[in-house]
Amino acid sequence: MNSRHDILIVGAGPAGMAAAIELRRLGFAPLVVDEQSAPGGQIWRDVERPRPDALRNALGPDYAAGAEVAGQFRASGVDYRPGTRMWHIEPGLRVFLSQAGKAFVAEPKALLLATGAQERPAPIPGWTLPGVLTVGAAQILMKGSGQIPERPVWIAGSGPLPILYMRQLVAAGGQVAGYLDTTPRGAALRALPHLRSALRGWADLRKGLAWMRALKAGGLHIEKHVTDLVATGTERLEALSYRTADGKAHRVEAEVLLLHEGVVPSIHGTLSVDCAHVWDEAQAALRPALDDWGMTSVEGLYVAGDGAGIAGVRAALARGRLAAQGIAARLGREAGAAEVAGARAELRAASASRGFLDAVFPAPGSSVEIPDDTIVCRCEELTAGEIRAAARIHRGGPNQVKAVTRCGMGPCQGRQCGYTVNRILASAYGQSQADVGFFRIRPPLKPVTLQELAALDEGREAP
Amino acid sequence: MFKQLADPARRSFSVFIDGAEVSARDGETVAAVILRAPPHIARHTPVKETPRAPFCLMGVCFDCLATVDGETSVQTCLVEVQPGMKIERPVGKLRITL
Ligand code: FES
């Protein structure tokens, strides 16, 4: 069942859908694969499902807007295979995929990775305890399952997502026990130079401020500049402790704690084929180096959406269209100057408030010390202390630390520890995070079983 | 830990977690069902045998691995629940091979 499509799009979120719609309009027939069972990505997860009014209203109009894009995506007649994982990319563009327990190969002329973002790991002591989840996870549960925390929930972290989720949760009848805002002091001041550009994205910013005001008016317990957050419990989360801005230590009972420290581009695919990447200082994350159309340093391999650098849903739609137009031109069909100019203008407008948001919600830097007893690698259960010890003895980069400790070798392939190791090594060696870099990523990108591989034999040899 | 909001349009049906009957609804993931069924965990880790529950719900942490209809190490946050599914929570030294 190997695919014969000229164009493969991985990911059916905003960017992947927008690219598919544009490519169909231009007369192409791409294949779209996605891990989930329905289009929408994380932001518009399960957006096609009819919902009771109360839940639809709680999720808000920005979420509901995704239904229209998903509708256009379906109506475009594109070949769409949900429930399909990509687990390996070879240069020259052979892409190994797996659906319903069977592996297959695609050899497209152009590959678009629209695999979005993931939440930045927010390691604190006790974050592996059942009862601790990410804010994104809780939001996915609300969208996909109509499911919310049973009792008042603790939320800790920084960024626009906790504010959005709290608003949705409260509107759906849920309760927040308290919001422990870990945004450091002074971030708002540092964001001021970005304000002028951000004013062009004023509508977005005003929305966020209005949500916060409404939450406060509703009696939300909020603590600012919280540090030293610790989750405790034996078999599950039982309590949390933290320090408030006035220096006082607090301890509260807790059943569910949701963490969030922003989102980072999903880069495993582009790292695995050695695309050039750049360190984005403002977002403290790597992103692939891209040309004006979203093409990486590898010929024919494109990236669109938050995987190209965190910029939000509107920018993802515009980048998806631009990548489609670039791919079309590459395959010999021009998109039309007006369409291209339109997509570029939209991308500019959508990116206006980003610098401001990045500065208001800075990622925890290497100066914020992660306690020694904190698990860094959730898969291999290695602590910050063990990573530091390895750094002291071997003085090596992320790959040496990985080789001696097994950190990053588990099934998540460093998705939950990569940036933490980066931070710890940067502070241990007095280097910049950009210089320390990230793990080398080796196939498979996702675990694959022998039975799945067996299906490859039908068409061609296994890799 | 988590509760469902009313949604009459969704069909509900039974699945089994370690043999115990649990109610599930159309369109949700196995991981979501696990988070409603005490003790709310997916597995114990192979390294130190500590309990873990679904954490990210978007396929990037692998803490939701469980056995689904006999298939081991399934990322349950990526699998839609089906009527009658049998879910087992692995304990201990089952290693995931890469
Ligand atoms: S909950 Fe993280 S991979 Fe499933």
Oligomeric state as shown: heterodimer
Largest sheet of chain A: 5 strands, parallel
- Topology, number of strands of chain B: 8
Distance linking N and C termini of chain B: 32 Å
Name the average pLDDT of chain A: 93
- Count the E strands of chain A: 23
Bound molecules: FE2/S2 (inorganic) cluster
Architecture overview:
The radius of gyration of chain A is 22 Å and the shape is globular. In chain A, strand 14 (227-232) and strand 15 (239-243) form a beta hairpin. In chain A, the strands form seven sheets. In chain A, strands 3-2-1-7-21 form a five-stranded parallel β-sheet, with helices on one face. Chain A has a five-stranded parallel β-sheet with strand order 9-17-11-12-13. Chain A contains 19 helices and 23 strands. Chain A has three domains: 2-119 and 264-333, FAD/NAD(P)-binding domain, CATH 3.50.50.60; 132-261, FAD/NAD(P)-binding domain; 375-436, Arc Repressor Mutant, subunit A (Orthogonal Bundle). The two termini of chain A are 16 Å apart. With 463 residues, chain A is α/β, with parallel strands linked by helices. Helix content of chain A is 37%, strand content 21%. By secondary structure, chain B is mainly β. Helix content of chain B is 5%, strand content 32%. Chain B has one helix spanning 30-34; strands at 2-4, 12-17, 20-25, 43-44, 51-52, 65-68, 71-75, 86-88. In chain B, the strands form two sheets. Chain B has a five-stranded mixed β-sheet with strand order 3-2-8-6-7. The longest helix of chain B has 5 residues, at 30-34. Chain B starts with a strand and ends in a 10-residue tail after the last strand. Strand 10 of chain A pairs antiparallel with strand 1 of chain B, so a sheet runs across the interface. Chain A: One of its GO terms (molecular function) is oxidoreductase activity. Chain A: Residues 375-426 form the BFD-like [2Fe-2S]-binding domain. Chain A: Keywords: Oxidoreductase. Chain A: It holds the Pfam family Fer2_BFD.
